[in-house]
Amino acid sequence: MWMILIVLVLLLGGVTFYTSHRLHRWLRGWWPRLPFAVVLGALGAMTVVMTLGFLGICLRTVAAYWMAVFVYLFLYTLLGDIIGGLLRLCRFKWCKGALYRGVTAVTVATLTAVTVLGGALHAHRIQHVSYEVAVARTPDVSDIQILLLSDLHLGAVGSEERLATIVEQINSQKPDVVCIAGDFFDTDFASIEDPQAARDTLRELKATYGVYACPGNHDAGSTARQMTAFLQDCGIRLLADEYTLIDDRLYLVGRRDASPIGSFDGQSRQPLADFFSPADPTLPVVVMDHNPMHLDEYAEGVDLILSGHTHQGQLFPANLVTDGLYTVDYGYYRRDAHSPAMIVTSGVGYWGMPIRVGTDSELVSIRLT
């Protein structure tokens, strides 16, 4: 644990120093006498505020947005360095002057501001996505509309303000079953500012056959019991290595996440075969499993897996990383005709920074045909 903390401190310190050093050099194109200590102090203060907010100590909202600014300020600074290096290799002499450095500083600051502001606005726009999934089994369940969402991260900055809109948009789809594929909470139940207001809003959710959730990696820890009680009070049934029969025609299974942050009130993930033995194996089976990393655990006995967790990277270029890490980090996937289908949603909320760049907040409608 200490080793991880040391690495993180060194990484943050290194990024802060590098960004400060390059920005100071470019800013001197406009202010030749600008002390390096001023730039380093400003970015160092940003890093401290960001860290304190991330740890939940203070200034959570300021820290969340500062984190986004910090990330893109570093990325655009790095990009500016790369472009400048290439121009010098091509012997463009003008790229060494004070004007070039000053223009670079302004460009980096402008791109950072535009990206963070645009990402903050975009994160609040909820997209509606739909899929049809072919199921070979009987009986016909094509009249059962499933609405999938994940990664609400209730308790994160801005999450409670968006809750009424999310519930309204879910209800507008008139779903038969609502499936919440994990990370309903943002690790600590105490981070929810007004649990009663959130509870009243969530009780407005309407679905013909009910609202169900499975535990994600953030739905754990010292307040896991409070989280479970909250869901129950909201009329949301938690399927934690459990299953239910929907309208005597469709099995819905919920799995515990394999890598929780903390524990699920002392419980751990069980093998599917240990708790799921359907009385009628001819009925379709839908599984909620928060992390799509576990695709290989499922065989022909499962028709559809619903997952989230990846946020599709949430920010560009992190979506390129998740695309490389997962067999499927977003959308529909089916390896072959004998394998279950999988749908991975980018989530309706966000983690850490309340912005999305290159990805969408979304609700997913599914019909089994």
Task: Spell out the key features of this protein.
single chain; 9 helices; elongated; 369 residues; six-stranded mixed beta sheet; alpha/beta; 12 strands
Write up this protein.
This protein is an alpha/beta fold and 369 residues long. 39% of the residues lie in helices and 15% in strands. It contains nine helices and twelve strands. The chain has helices at residues 2-27, 36-54, 60-89, 98-123, 159-172, 195-202, 224-233, 272-275, 318-325; strands spanning 126-133, 145-149, 177-180, 211-213, 236-238, 242-246, 250-254, 285-288, 304-307, 331-333, 341-344, 361-368. The strands form two sheets. Strands 1-12-2-3-4-5 form a six-stranded mixed beta sheet. α3 (60-89) crosses α4 (98-123). The termini are far apart.
